[in-house]
Amino acid sequence: MKFSLVLLFTSLFCTAHSQTKLPYQNEKLSIDLRVKDLLGRMTVEEKAGQLNQLNGGAFTGPALKDEAQKSKMKLVQEGKVGSLLNVIGTKETRAIQEYAMKSRLKIPLLFGLDVIHGYKTIFPIPLAEACSWNLDQIETNSSVAAKEAASAGIHWTFAPMCDISNDPRWGRVMEGAGEDPYLASVISAKRVKGFQGNLKGNENVMACVKHFAAYGAVEGGREYNTVDVSRFMLWNKYLPSYKAAVEAGAATVMNAFNVVEGVPASGNKYLVNDVLKKKWGFKGFLVSDWSSFNEMINHGYAKDSKDAALKAMQAGSMMDMESSASYKYLPELIKEGKLTLAQLDEAVGKILYYKFKLGLFEDPFYFCNARKEIQNLFTDEHRNIARQAAVQSIVMLKNNESILPVKNDAKIALIGHYAESKEDMFDFWVAQGKTDEAVSILEGFEQRFNGNVTYAKGYMPDNTTTETLINEAIQNCYNADIIFVNIGISGKMAGEDRALAQPEISQGQIELLKTLRKLGKPIVALVSSGRPLVLTEADKYVDAILQIWILGTEAGNAVADVVSGDQSPTGKTVMSFPYAVGQIPVYYNHFNTNRPAPSDPGGDWYSRYRDIPNDPLYPFGYGLTYTQFGYSDLRLSKSTMTKSDTLTVKVTLSNQSERPGEEIVQLYIRDHVASLIRPVKELKAFQRVKMAPADVQDVTFKISAKDLSFYDVNGNLVLEPGKFSIFVGGNSRDVTEAVFELK
Ligand code: NOJ
What we know:
Rossmann fold; Immunoglobulin-like; 22 helices; 26 strands; binds 1-deoxynojirimycin
């Protein structure tokens, strides 16, 4: 009796409750219906509010305590904010979401953050991670980053950066996947998948494809500088990686700061409306880069904030990060008839869609689970994955006389401020990563080679050196069998606003190497940097080079894993290492020019430098392992193919050593004559191949007509008959070639 009364009461209550539910609150209805219903209830001011994204201030102090942030909470409560960025942790996101729940329609906020290479467990920088060419590992890394961030209240990361970068002067090359459109495309797609999963549940975050478009082409590598690229280059070089990320289902896209064809990307109708929305069918929403709506005023494209908001909306842009132009002026612009309600609704509807999709209307605190925040962050499992990722990101550029791996019980002298300094280990984009929780190179060495490592600083943090430091370094080497010198630049010099005119090894470090060379002992350079540096001078004084980038939490362990031979290096460069600064930009997929340099550099009147070679010091795709591989017998299934055929390419790969190993086999093509010129080589496929000692295997690739096509200036793929070359090898320079004809 008692039981049935309870039942009756519960069912009456539930019915009454569900009757009071408005359609947009009813999870049984489709998201589209709920969005429509909600839009119908919103005022123009509330709609403009949804397009307003403000800085919550994690970098300036906890959002709620900071006086400057209080006025923002008032706006949240009034329904004039759609999203906050830089708010961190379940406590703060929950507290701020409570303000949103006091607003008239209780529309939840989205919390966004730059989770670039990990949230608490820090992974290698994206550029380094890309050098693994390991797509599964890359997807896993992003999914761990997403799980940690989502467990700490974050709904949305501003990654992946899909900008193609040729210029190591640009500090942001660290955030991307390097210089190649194909590799960047497949990597960007995996990053999106890793971050987003299927966007169900609270362990994934929305991805944001940035910086749309062509930010990697900033002149002189200077941050926030002008971009001028033709449609030919836009379509064939810069756009494919954004497109791949959009096709992988990215929920959001970020407008770039730069201009394209003289129009700022935020106000660029061609990019946003014609390409992204119409041609690619992007269904998600756009967010500006930091104040990039307002910065159209500095560009000389908008006369004031109101004009900027108008031009951004007319182009099809949507959420306004930090410039407050939209929420302030959109209602006025609608009233004046300069914008239509339909334009506003389209943008707002897309943002609401994702708020529904993430389950925030059912539970605005869905991502604010303090227990998860403790359980899911910095776990042993995550650290192990980060260590594996770091091992695979290391690129061995040189290993004369096979001095690596070090012999068991070798006495090691480790030199270099960066090997010890935790402060210099990380870049700017590390969310909640803490360097004191990370393993330095010195710590990694000491753990792995216990008792056999001695350390000296060698140079100062500003990269100068003194006689005393050099003398200490020399003393430190007297009893050593092998010397490791950690050169490079501080992690703090990687990322936004870290452009360098001279991405080089400092004079202080060169002096140190020169002096150590005189000891006649083998020297290994460990190069720390968030970009390829010019290593030409340093290269002269060392026997081996490991490019160790910025490897994250497990850096020291990963480097020790490789140096000891517990793991073999397998990474391959994804950006060319310039021979000299004056050679930048230097990249493998350049055009032939009218006067290509002959392989025998005699004679005059061709495209070259008189003082340095044309080629980079280390080319794209380059990296050694502890195993030697031989390539032979490249063969094609046919010498002519039609547009509907598939071409089978086979090469024989042999492991010429007594160690098991793994090689990244790369396939490039060249289209010899086309209506728009084609690069001398274009990566089209690659495979990681595991080989037992003395193993011989055939590696097979299938090439279809799509792989042979390119974009015309309207963004349509075209396929033209003619002569093609196929190149296969372990890097973009050392390849074997076969030729065929497309009929
Ligand atoms: C500016 C950067 O260009 C962009 O990449 C980043 O996501 C935003 N700031 C937010 O921090």
